[in-house]
Amino acid sequence: MSKFRNVYLYTTLIALALLGIWIYITKFTGLLDPVIFPPPEIVIIAFGKAINELFQGFLSSMGLLLPALALSIVLGIGGGLYFGINHRFRAILEPFFQTFSPLPPTLFIPYAIALFPTFKSASIFILIITTFWPIFLGTIQGVLLIDKPFWDNAKTIGLKGKDLFLKVILPASSPLILNGVGTSLGFSFIVLMMAEMFGADSGMGHFIQYYTDFTQFDFVLAGIIFNSMIILITMIIFEKIKKRILFWTNIKNEAK
């Protein structure tokens, strides 16, 4: 409890201050249109009414996000390890990596709509494009930044093949691999909700767009708050998993 207090005390105070500003502006100043910016108690009521719908939207969104992210992790890490080790092939294809990786995934939406039969399959395709590149490039960078003594020690003790991958390359490059996964996770929520707002009949983004069309901004704000909570919880869980996987880096930092 004391650790939580020390870490999140100021975060909690800032959140309470923002809530106080929201209450003051919406209830006592008349500066904002109450239809577009309802006071907190109205949003809380809307949140309670829509809680089942919000969770159904969350499950629908995860049905798109999780398969795309899982496939990107497999392809990104596998491809990144291969090209990170094979310098010749990487040099040949690196111009293509640098050309295609910065392109916004939304550029491929017309092709996704034309090539895939359903919104779900088209969305998963776009999400794979979104999440693949940070993992792939992060993995390559992680392999390239492995210190030379690691390679020398591996050669000295005769590590090859699977043992070299599992005991040297993968652990040594895992910090940058996981950074890439974290970046992909953040980007994926942005693209997911944009797609759901304009082409889906369910999902977290669709919820907001649906109630926007009916100018029910109490439900819109409830949806924004819910989505923010989901993203925050997801990123906190990922960071805890990341710290557990990279426990050896935490020990190193504590030693410093």
Record field, number of beta strands: 0
Distance between the termini: 26 Å
Structural class determined from secondary elements: mainly alpha
The radius of gyration computed from the alpha-carbon positions, rounded to a whole number of angstroms, is 23 Å
Query: How can the largest sheet be summarized?
Result: none
What oligomeric state do the depicted chains represent? single chain
Question: What is the mean predicted local confidence, pLDDT?
Answer: 89
Task: Choose one word for the global shape.
Answer: globular
Uncertain segments: none
SSE succession: HHHHHHHHHH
Supply the number of helical segments. 10
**Helix content range:** over 70%
Q: How much of the sequence is in beta strands?
A: under 5%
